[in-house]
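Example record

One chain of 267 residues, shown exactly as stored in the release files.
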Amino acid sequence: DAPFVQAKVHARFPRGGQARAIPSSWVERASDNPEPDGPDYVALNTLGLDGETSAYRVRRGAWVRLGVDVAADGGDEFAIARSVGDLVELRHATAGQDNADPVVVAGVVLREIKAAQDLAAALGSTAPVRVKIDGVGIGWGVAGLLEAWRREGLHRAEIVTVLASESTGRDDEAATLRPSNKRDEMWLAMRSLLSPHGQGSLRLRVDRRTQAQLSGPKLETNSGGRTVIESKRSMRRRGVSSPDRAEAVLLAPYEPLTGRRRVRVIA
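Predicted structure tokens for this chain:
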């Protein structure tokens, strides 16, 4: 039964709670999704690339993208996630004072960009690697450095700065859940990608901590009728850690509207 039927007819709710942005049962299902088979897919550890040691299978020609959640003042985790078509992995997660240095953080991201470019080349992907960076705090400086390094020829990736508090730039009056800003839109986009009754197509290959963070925030509604994701500050007040790893995972497949450009969500 669909979640609506479970709730309205059978008085049951998806595991993880009625008010969760993403029910934990959906996260578990995506984590258990089997590896695809067929001639169009190849195991990462058969490509001959340094650092690609997993047996996860990806489609040839898949779009390779990165999501970067930059730690605030060195207090939260700095995390990088990667999506390769329908596969999403956590590539990096660290805490500490080094995360307050934009040069150090940008250097780590650059390393992941180069690995992503090598992977894209091995897969025969025609789309450029695209990197979505949380632009709050030092994230703005990190994005600026990466843009400068791109101009200098150190990498070829597209750098997109995402300001969570900004308007989405699009409004679907017919939508049941209408996000208030880009952070809300990111969470709702992942909710759609993980819904077993919607697209439900992602394979999550992340650790337990990241899985728990994806099920952490509550789903709320503001006075204007728009959907709002619980803030990090509110989560901390009730003893829930900041979902830094989860938001890196959200950023990897998320494509904000930039100008008039509309892009696909999954390759």
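Notes: DSSP finds eight helices and ten strands in the chain.
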